[in-house]
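Quick one, probably user error.
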């Protein structure tokens, strides 16, 4: 099998494909010949990239628009996939929300918002995907956590808690679904060059780079390549793991 066929004929659903890491994962999956249902919240926002990738890589990218916290819309998407494909080989839970607050400034609304997107929606997505995968006796579920979830960071108590929960739920789901040949893993990116860094002071970025042993900020493609590995048959015996993609951050 050539490098460009690692995901050939696999049906994948990826959330949060409109930018950053999600966009990079979408492109790599298309490059590896997966049939991808690519999700975003804003109607029409990824129509152009879906068409472009379909033509560029001779595969099929189907845009689907829904809010991962909306259980009715979520169910409709899985119904669509079932009707059109009758199977689902890979789910990538990439959609997430980050908002900072120091201890003493955390509100109930902030906790509800971050956990609704980063944890509750992930659990719901896993439950619906598992219905396909249990029937097939195969599948790969990939959850995007964060180095903040594994290591913590001042000012991000709620975000770190939500991404730490992703690590824990990944381990439990992996144990529960393993006998059905379903693998569940997480990726914990470090500092990645996305639009979240656009407004960060250059001195702060330089300071952060100085703490990365490999001497550079990660690229979205670095995360996407690990997602391809976890979705492919190369990782058939890998489950319950959280893989850091952080260039060896120094503490």
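Nope, works fine. Designed sequence:
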């Amino acid at each position: 099998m050539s490098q460009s066929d690692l995901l050939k004929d696999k049906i994948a659903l990826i959330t949060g494909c409109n930018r950053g890491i999600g966009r990079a994962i979408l492109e790599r999956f298309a490059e590896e010949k997966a049939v991808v249902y690519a999700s975003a919240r804003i109607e029409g926002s990824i129509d152009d990239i879906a068409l472009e990738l379909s033509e560029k890589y001779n595969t099929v990218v189907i845009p689907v628009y829904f809010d991962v916290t909306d259980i009715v819309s979520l169910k409709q998407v899985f119904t669509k996939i079932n009707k059109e494909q009758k199977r689902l080989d890979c789910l990538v839970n990439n959609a997430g929300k980050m908002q900072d607050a120091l201890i003493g400034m955390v509100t109930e609304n902030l906790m509800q918002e971050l956990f609704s997107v980063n944890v509750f929606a992930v659990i719901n997505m896993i439950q619906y995907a598992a219905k396909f995968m249990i029937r097939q006796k195969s599948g790969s579920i990939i959850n995007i956590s964060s180095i903040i979830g594994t290591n913590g960071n001042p000012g991000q108590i709620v975000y770190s808690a939500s991404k730490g929960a992703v690590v824990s739920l990944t381990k439990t789901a992996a144990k529960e679904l393993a006998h059905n040949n379903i693998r569940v893993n997480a990726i914990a990116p470090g500092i990645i060059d996305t639009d979240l860094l656009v407004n960060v002071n250059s001195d702060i970025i330089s300071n952060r780079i100085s703490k990365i042993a490999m001497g550079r900020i990660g690229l979205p493609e670095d995360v996407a390549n690990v997602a391809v590995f976890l979705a492919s048959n190369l990782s058939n015996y890998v489950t319950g793991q959280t893989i850091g993609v952080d260039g060896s951050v120094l503490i």
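The chain has one domain: 3-245.
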